[in-house]
Amino acid sequence: MTACTSVVGLQWGDEAKGKIVDLLTPDHDLVVRYNGGPNAGHTVVCNGKSFKLSLIPTGILRPKVQAVIGNGVVVYPPRFLDECDGLRANGIEVGSNLLLSDRAHVILPYHLEEEALRESAEGRSIGTTGRGIGPCYQDKAGRHLAIRVGELLDADHLRHRLREIVPIKNRLLTALSPQAKTFDPDRLADEYIALGQALRPHVTDTVRLLHDAYAKGRRILFEAAQGTLLDVDHGTFPYVTSSNSSTTGIWSGCGFPARRLTRIVGVIKAYSTRVGQGPFPTELHDEIGEHIRQTGREYGTVTGRPRRCGWFDAVAVKHAVMVSGADELAIMLLDVLSELDEIRICVAYEYDGRQIEHFPAFAHQLEKCKPIYETLPGWKRDISGCRTLAELPAQARRYLDRLSAILGLPISIVSIGPDREQTIFCGCCD
Ligand code: IMP
């Protein structure tokens, strides 16, 4: 059977999926993004250089790999082109090895303005990345005001569409705030027609491309952005992103049947983090939380915001395992916990005076959940040089065994540092 692998985050994003995608890419011919947009931040260390990618799949860093951005992604063309330039400046080839779906939706400057106004208005703030993601997906679902990548290639059509859309957007923006920035349809059309020409060599029908590749036996890796707990349907709604960041997004976001997946690698950190607002039962507001933040360099790749840090939440991750159908686990950043005396795993919640083991559907319920912990001894030793499970201290192995037992999945990869070499392959899922 042709290998079709999914690498998906099982927490609130930032699980270091980029490293796992980078490690698994040599076994694949295509690497495909299917959700999100420039809100994602993937850091990969390659040949001593650190690459920060936001829209472009990390597979681009490996020669001979076809990188694909599927229809489920929302694209901000200036960002896409900047990333291409940054890669080329670092000697990475970017040409027909990077393809972009003609059906992907386009983020326009008015999306960024709308998001800024909504986030600063009274009422609920999500704590978004400010990249126009929500308003763009909103237009996609609303249909009347949306523009897709393929439309950027037809100058007359695009100008006509923007002359229809922009006055409506301007009215909506000024209704949100009289001080709102407004836009000139023709200037925007000139700008986006030029951007369309720059994108043209990359734009194609990626649905056909993926199916042709599959028919030829080429191996495909699907790279998720964000994590399952930020999925618009299955995450901590409304404190989520606007796309399906679980594996559920693959089918709709690529037009590729998820039933063809042969391997689903669920990526988790050895602890929890989240950025932005929203419930986080195991969040630590003490010196341990600060220690994890500093040791794990837990600051957002895209926004630089300090990430909220806490203990591993097995209740939340079990929900994510279920939704994303993970077969195996990659455990990241285990080394960050090395100096701690003891380590905790949340195994249940106390809610409304009783113990629950399921993940509540509503944010206001999760806000009231108190974690019930199992406590394990720390290992108090630097593990960043370990290369086999046997080299890990017994306490670290015990922690991994507990995570595996509680989540009911084998651990295939353990990461103990940012470099490719700082990885233990456990041999369970080869
Ligand atoms: P948006 O995706 O910019 O709309 O933000 C919605 C929520 O998802 C906010 O809490 C963001 O902080 C969070 N978010 C979006 N992208 C990422 C990511 O790549 N990593 C972690 N959190 C993210």
Task: Please provide a written account of the structure.
- The chain is an alpha/beta fold and 430 residues long.
- It has three domains: 4-101 and 202-260, 3-Layer(aba) Sandwich (Adenylosuccinate Synthetase, Chain A, domain 1), CATH 3.40.440; 105-199, Adenylosuccinate Synthetase, subunit A, domain 2 (Orthogonal Bundle); 268-425, Adenylosuccinate Synthetase, Chain A, domain 3 (Alpha-Beta Complex).
- It is built from twelve helices and 20 strands.
- It has helices at residues 17-24, 77-89, 109-120, 133-142, 155-176, 185-199, 206-215, 248-254, 287-295, 314-324, 363-367, 394-407, and strands spanning 4-9, 30-33, 42-46, 49-53, 66-69, 74-75, 98-101, 105-106, 203-204, 220-227, 263-269, 272-274, 308-310, 312-313, 328-332, 342-351, 354-356, 370-377, 411-415, 423-425.
- Helix 3 (109-120) packs across helix 4 (133-142), helix 3 runs parallel beside helix 5 (155-176) and helix 5 (155-176) crosses helix 6.
- It is globular and about 65 Å long.
- The two termini are 15 Å apart.
- Inosinic acid is lined by residues 12-14, 39-41, 126-129, 131, 133-134, 225-226, 230, 239, 241-242, 275-276.
- Inosinic acid (IMP) is lined by residues 12-14, 39-41, 126-129, 131, 133-134, 225-226, 230, 239, 241-242, 275-276.
